[in-house]
Amino acid sequence: MDEQFTAVLRPHLPYLPNDRELAPGDGLRELGLNSMQAIEVLFALEDAYGAAIPDDKLNDHTFETAGNLWEVVEQSREKAGELR
């Protein structure tokens, strides 16, 4: 996970203390991400990385942990790069 990813995600995680870094195994729901915020995060990540996250990746597994979401972002970035 890079700093940009954390910067996009952090405002949507009200239970993540400011002095604590986001870890790949952190549960996003436990940190306060709800389904409406997940959609906002999705659009923000797509804007930040210039890659579309496929619809089939918009599931509970993807939004379960920060690491799962990061993995999908990375896969989407790689796929976008292949298309250029």
Helix-strand blueprint:
Blueprint: H1 3-9, H2 35-49, H3 66-83
Helix pairs in contact: 1-2
Note down, in words, how this protein is organized.
The protein has 84 residues and is an all-alpha fold. The protein is 48% helix and 0% strand. It has three helices and no strands. The chain has helices spanning 3-9, 35-49, 66-83. Helix 1 (3-9) runs antiparallel to helix 2. The longest helix is centred in the C-terminal third of the chain and has 18 residues, at 66-83. It is globular and about 35 Å long. The two termini are 23 Å apart. 15% of the residues are buried.
Structural class: mainly alpha
The average pLDDT is 92
Rg, alpha carbons = 12 Å
Shape: globular
Tell me the helix content.
40-55%
Per DSSP E runs of 2 or more residues, the count of β-strands stands at: 0
The proportion of residues in beta strands is: under 5%
What tags apply to this protein structure?
84 residues, mainly alpha, 3 helices, globular
Compact description:
The protein is mainly alpha-helical.
